[in-house]
Amino acid sequence: MDEGISRLPERQLLEHRDFIGLDYPALYMCKPKRGVKRDESKETYKLPHRLIEKKRRDRINECIAQLKDLLPEHLKLTTLGHLEKAVVLELTLKHLKALTALTEQQHQKIIALQNGERSMKSPVQADLDAFHSGFQTCAKEVLQYLSRFESWTPREQRCAQLLGHLHSISSQFLPGPQLL
Fold first, then answer.
1. Which of 19, 36, 37, 116 would give a disulfide with 32, using CB separation of 3.0 to 4.6 Å?
2. Mean pLDDT per 10-residue run, the chain (180 residues)?
């Protein structure tokens, strides 16, 4: 034996008999030693890697499913059939941008009111805007109901006719931006 090793206390010397019957699964992840065949080490590496990748994909899919559930119905109706993952992400971004813009607009109104500034719009215009907003919300709810419970699709002629009718009614009262 080497003199440096023989000077070590006996307790620090580990022999083969100390390891018999012990299983060290964490050691399987280590790089193989010279005596181990490469194919065996690849297989022991591939299995945990595959499991890790599967769990990662499952987490991503679960998050996308949750985003899909959180999307408003009127955004889900803009596409036909199954919502792909990329479409769900795009619609989520669109919705978040709209919410951010709305929040910023409301924040500006709050600041203006706190500073005592009067609204630039006349009371009549503010009432018309509120009516238009309510009309849009109602029209969206009608379309959601028809698609969900009456199986209407946005591409059907009767759906297009209803949208046209709602646009014409909206334009009679409000000469402003189009409905929906």
1. 36
2. 49 51 50 52 74 95 93 78 86 91 89 72 73 81 80 77 80 60
| Nearest alpha carbon to residue 130 among 95, 122, 35 | 122
Count Cβ atoms within 10 A of the Cβ of residue 76 and give its class: 0-12 exposed, 13-18 middle, 19 or more buried.
middle
Q: Quick check: 154 and 77 in contact, CB under 8 A?
A: yes
Take residue 179 and report the two structure tokens written for it: 């409905």
Go through 45-60 and write b for each residue having 16 or more CB atoms within 10 A of its CB, e for each that does not.
eeeeeeeeeeeeeeee
pLDDT for the residue numbered 59 = 97
Please provide the DSSP assignment of 44-97 as one string: HHHHHHHHHHHHHHHHHHHHHHHHHHHS-HHHHTTS-SSPPHHHHHHHHHHHHH
Contact 166, 179 (CB under 8 A): yes
Do you know the residue count of the chain? 180
What pLDDT shows up at residue 20?
54
By the 8 A CB rule, do 139 and 73 touch?
Answer: no
Q: Which tokens go with 180?
A: 């929906």
As a whole number of angstroms, the distance between CA 93 and CA 54 comes to: 26
Assign 165 to helix, strand or coil. Answer: helix
